[in-house]
Every structure is written in structure tokens, then in C-alpha cells.
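Exam prep: given the inputs below (a chain plus 4AD), describe the expected output before reading on.
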Amino acid sequence: MARTKIKEILQSDKTDYSVNVKGWVRSFRNNQFIALNDGSCMKNLQVVIELGKFDDIIGKINESTSISVNGKIVLSQGKGQKFDLMAESVEILGECDPNEYPLQLKNKPSLEFLREKAHLRFRTNTFGAVFRIRHTLAYAIHKFFNDRGFVYMHTPIITASDAEGAGEMFKVTTLPFDGTPRKEDNSVDFAEDFFGRATNLTVSGQLEAELGAMAFGEVYTFGPTFRAENSNTARHLAEFWMIEPEVAFNDIKDNADLAEDFIRYVIGYAMEHNREDIEFLQQRLLDEEKQKPQAERSEMALIEKLEFVLNNKFERVTYTEAIQILLDSPAYKKKKFQYEVSWGIDMQSEHERYLVEKHFKKPVIVTDYPKDIKAFYMRQNDDGKTVAAMDILVPGIGEMVGGSQREERLEKLEQRMREMHIPVEEMYWYLDTRRFGTVPHAGFGLGFERLILFVTGMTNIRDVIPFPRTPKNAEF
Ligand code: 4AD
Ligand code: MG
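Solution:
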């Protein structure tokens, strides 16, 4: 008999029909009731075993044993589920010794413990929900751009350009550590390396995406990016996924509109298609919050928070206005900020959180940052001090998006590159777009894992990517 997915059985109204299901045992009660999960949805299917009928294999049915069951779907006699599967035959596909198995759900393993067992944590309700949502969001991202005529562009993962300045890069090399070829001045001779030059893992696909936008009009990238910063925070990964749209003829306002539409669309899509997973995560958070003092509990439950974002426009302020809000804030006056506040600072997360969580209580798009704290490619404003940059700050997360209108004027761009010691000659390919048919254009980068944090309500970025890469950690 062909296998039927549990999701299909539970979603249907049909009863009294024969099926085959396959999956992993979540629990086994009274030698009679198996909670079977096959990953297709959050819910388990209850498999009912007639007492005495399967005595030869009953001892092998443990948590995470994989089984195949033939039987009949009937309306359940018990509470808590609509259907039962009355087992007619049960085959053990793979045994699971409870004395060896490191993940016993009945012990209610913590997220920290599960992080150390990341190869098995997909089998928990929490991570099942998180990674089904991750999948849906990825799909929704492609759908959003595809529906709007964007071209999905694969930008290189290995790159020789390190001019973005977004962060420390990982080197890519096949040169030996012992007897590394060196030049006369003792520096490493990368001419001997695989690519004949020094190469790195990319920190962003933006510069290449700009080249695509100058032909297709609208492109986006969606791929892994790498940053070798030693930031051991709950918001940073060394390997993360980024979505970077780049659009010809857009200015900074169009860019902010696109980002806002995009974020709303993908959140709405996940809410529609992963309702059960989100409801489960919401309940999980509510249970967790019960342990906390009242003052530390969130004002909104997860679904309410997501609906709020769907139904309310993001706030838009300039950097200059944001700094003024901070200077006028009670927090500043009572010296609650650890870091200084003045025009020109690179806002710290305490400042960003104050703006979104205390002041505006909603996502905020901050524009027009001082040019000295932003990348060389951002379009210079007429005031000579600021650039057409844009960051989107989100409650609970901080920065989710960084982007800008790009400097499309060759002279201004070259001048800024020289000021910032960026090798103008090496970047000829980037500058060529400004030489040959340049147009105003803009784009942004959205950190995929930070979006998933927001949608799932998880609080550590290591819990929303299957195999996190962080300083001193590349297990699995
Ligand atoms: O602000 P960033 O550095 O912007 C860029 O890389 C631009 N080239 C994007 C563009 O304009 N096309 O990074 C963009 C976003 C951040 O807002 C954040 O959400 C995420 O990427 N991000 C990280 N996520 C996880 N771990 C890290 N170490 C991250 N660094 C940035
Ligand atoms: Mg940024």
C-alpha cells in the first residue's frame, strides 16, 4: 500500500478507510497507544494497538523507533484527537534503544541541551515547528519576488573582492600551512593559490546583484553569507542566509516601501500556511513567560505581535530624528544607556531597542545615516554629511534589514572610494556600471535568520538555523 502522510489524514474528514503510515514514535502509552509523527505536521497520529495482538514487537516500540503501520482510520473514541489508526500490522523499520538514545522527550530537554544534539532536535515539536516555518518563509520569499517579475540571481560564494566592508572575511585557499609559498618580502604568494589570487567567502551578494539590476531591472539574491566576526551574541552567526533585492530606478523611499511590503507579505504567508506551528510556538512562549516576573513579560502574544506588524505601517524617521528622540528620552536623562548618544554614533543595540520597543513600539525604518559609519556605495545626500541609507529595526530583534540607495554618480563614487581606501582600479567591474548607462538604483539585505526569530518568537539565532556556525562551534 502507498504511504499516506499524517497531515493528509488529519486534514481530511474521511473515516473508515485503509492506509499505510510511516514515521517515528513520539510516545507509547499503556502498551496500547502510539503517538506517531512523520514530520508532515505538528500533530501526531494516534495508532491504537490491540492488546495481545503484537506482543512479539511491543518491547521494541520506544521513542524514536521508526515504524510502518497498516490499518484503518476510524473516529477516535478518546479525547484530544479526531482520528485513530487501528493497527492491523506493524513493522519495525529501525529500532531505537532507550538506554542509548540521547534525547528523551519526557525529560523536557532544554533548548541549550537540544543545541548540543542538533542532529536529532528536528524530532521535537519546537524544532519541527521552527524548521517548517523556515521552509515556508524561504518559499514565500521566492514567491514574492517571482510574482513581481524579479530575476533570482546566484551571486558567487567565493569572491576576490573584500571591498564591501561588511565584516571580517573567511579566507579560501588551497595553499599549504607548512612551506607556504612566499614572495621576496615574505608575504604569502597568492599567485600560487588555486585561483591565482587571494579569495574569501562572500559577506554579501550586493555588488554583483547591482550588476544584474543594471540589465534585468529587478533582481534578488538569496544565499549563504559569511562573517568571521567574533560576535558571540544571540543575533549573530558566522554563516547566515541573506536576501538581497536590487532594483534599478528605485530611490530610497521606493526601497523602504519594497522592504515593508516584502516583510509583511512573508509574515502573512507564514501565518496563513503554518498556523498550527505558530500557535504551538505561541503557547510555548506563554508557558515560558509564566516563569518570568510580570515586568519582563511581553506585552503581546506572538500572533498578536505578528498581526500588529501586518496591520500597521512601519514608522519612518531619519537618523537625526532618532538621535534627538534618544537625547530627549527619560532613559537618557536618567543615564540608563551604557553607551554615549550624540550625532555621529553608530547606534548600539540598547539605542535601537529603546526606539522600537519603548518609544515607537513597532518596526522602524531609520534613514539618512552619517556617511562616516556607512559603506562606500551609499548615495551621498546633498547635505554633505549623510547618505541615503536605511536600516529596519524590529522589536525583540534589533536590525533586521540594512540597505540604501546606491551612489550612481561615477565621480562621487570614486572620490568616496579613495577617501575610504578602497582599491578603485581592482573594482573596475563595479564601476563599469556607473560608466556605461548608469541609473539611480537601490536595494537592501534582510537577514533570513533574524526574520525567522521574529516570526517564531525564538530568542537565540542558533535555534532557527539547522546547523549553526558560531565562534568555536562547527559541530555537525
Ligand atoms: O547590514 P548588512 O551588513 O548589509 C549588507 O550586507 C548589505 N550589502 C545589504 C544590501 O544592501 N544588499 O547586513 C544585512 C542584514 C542585517 O540587517 C542583518 O539582518 C543580517 O544581514 N546580518 C546578520 N545575520 C546574522 N548574523 C550576522 N552575523 C549578521 N550580519 C548581518
Ligand atoms: Mg547593517
